[in-house]
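Lecture 7 notes: from sequence to structure.
We start with the chain below.
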Amino acid sequence: MDTHQDAQLVKDTIQQIRNVYGSHKKILFHSGQGSQFTSYTVTDFCKQQTIQQSMSAKGTVGIML
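Predicted structure tokens for the same chain:
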């Protein structure tokens, strides 16, 4: 647990989800557009793990349409 989000924390959390569900399950990772989510660390990891990334449109934090 950390007091703030950074790219490594996000990656580690996604890895934990992958470990729980295994590589055979499709995972959709939805987030905001913060730098911790758009970083190379996270985007490259998602590509390597075939995890689909989805991001909210700017200005719609917390709003799912």
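Points to note: Residues 32 and 60 are 9 Å apart (CA to CA). The first strand starts at residue 28 and ends at 31.
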